[in-house]
Structure formats: C-alpha cells, structure tokens
Amino acid sequence: MSPFRAHSDGHDTATPAELEQFITHHGIGSKAVLYLSVAIYTGLRVSDLAVLGPQHRRADAFHLRLFKNRNRTPVDLIVPLHPILEIVLATHKVTALTYLVTEFGKPFSVKGLGNRISYWFRQAHLPHLTSHSVRKGLATDVAQNEATDSMLEAMFGWRDAKTSKIYTRNAERARLARQTVAKISWYGIGSKLLTPDEADEGVAGCGSGD
C-alpha cells in the first residue's frame, strides 16, 4: 500500500503516479499543468491560488495573507519559490493580476477555479481527486522527507501542531517500521527459506543476529 494513503479526512491524497497521469494527460504548457505546478510547490488552497499573482512575489518568495480566517485570525505566509516552479512560471505569459486566468484572460473566482480544477481532474480520469488532495499529497511528501512539524506549519500556515502531526507521525511510523524490519534476525533461519544460490547472493545476510 502506498504511504500516500496513510491519512484520510474525506479527501484522497494525491500520489506521485496520479500527478504524473495528470501531467501526461494535459501536457506541459497547459493551463491545467500550470495550476498543478503552483499547487504542488506551494500547497496553497484554491482560495489562495485564485488570487496568487506576480504582485505577491518578492525576490525568490511569495508573500501573501491567506484567505481562510482572514477576518478573524489572519495568517501572513511566506512561501519560497521552488526552482522548478520558477521555470514553469517563466514559460507562461502573465496577462492579469493572477497566474491562473479564464479563457477570457480574467482571474477566476474561487468557485470558478474550484470547478475548473475538478473538471481537469475528471478529464485526466482522476475524478476522486481535488485540489485538497494535492495539498495533502505535498504535506505527505515533505513529511516523508523528514520535514518537522514546525516546517509544515510554516509552509501551510497551520497555527498548531495538531494538523502537522497527522503527517509527521505517519511518516515517522513508516520510517521506524522500516528500521525495525531491518533488525529482524531469527539467527539465520531466513536462509532456510532460500535456495543455496539465493543465500549466496547475501539476501539471508540481512539481520544475521550479530
């Protein structure tokens, strides 16, 4: 089972294979893949993707106030620009205040962009995915690559560790399980499960009990 399925809150978690399928279907240079590029390297919600544009960029980072809870407990976020995203953005001509625009060159409404993203996923034969699935996929990816709770909170604008711990705890469990399996010994019994040639290749040498 893919570790990307470790957490569920009603939304599936996008896997690398599914993202590759999306990119292959729509093609690099498409508006759909532009959306995906921004989403997988920033983790922003649809409400923030709808307004993100060049005006939010300062040197090598995006600076923006998150749309969610903006009137109650506003969060100002700084997201460094990933080198791959910088290359992708450079290939798309900016014609409005936002990177993502409609076929008429106008910024999307939040609802309009959400609907368009759902349509792009359906076109790629991934109807079970949403933009939140991509956000969860990014959180899972960085946690598996040993990002800390504090790192996730800074990246995603979370105010407490409850959400980040969902991802870091699952990633830590996976790492610990792998380390534990590597310590299985059984004092050479494993060699009895192999042919002499397989044993000679060193498979049974893992966990010899030394």
How would you describe what is shown here?
The chain has 210 residues and is mostly helical. The chain has two domains: 11-158, Intergrase catalytic core (hpI Integrase, Chain A); 160-210. The protein is built from nine helices and three strands. It has helices at 16-26, 31-42, 46-49, 83-90, 110-123, 131-144, 149-156, 161-181, 196-200; strands at 57-58, 61-65, 76-80. The protein has a three-stranded antiparallel beta sheet with strand order 1-2-3. Helix 1 (16-26) packs antiparallel against helix 2, helix 2 crosses helix 6 and helix 7 crosses helix 8 (161-181). The two termini are 31 Å apart. The model has no long low-confidence stretch (mean pLDDT 85).
Oligomer: single chain
User: How many structural units, i.e. domains?
Assistant: 2
The total count of strands amounts to 3
Q: In angstroms, what is the radius of gyration?
A: 22 Å
> On the 0-100 scale, what is the average pLDDT?
85
CATH topology of the largest domain: hpI Integrase, Chain A
Q: Determine and state the CATH class of the largest domain.
A: Mainly Alpha
Give the spatial strand order of the biggest sheet: 1-2-3
Taken from the alpha-carbon principal axes, the silhouette is elongated
Low-confidence stretches: none
Say which CATH homologous superfamily of the largest domain is assigned.
Answer: Intergrase catalytic core
Decide which structural class fits the backbone: mainly alpha
Amount of beta strand: 5-15%
Main sheet record: 3 strands, antiparallel
CATH architecture identity of the largest domain: Orthogonal Bundle
Listing every helix as H and every strand as E from the N terminus to the C terminus, the arrangement reads HHHEEEHHHHHH
Helix residue percentage: 40-55%
For the record, give the distance between the C-alpha atoms at the N and C termini, rounded to a whole number.
31 Å
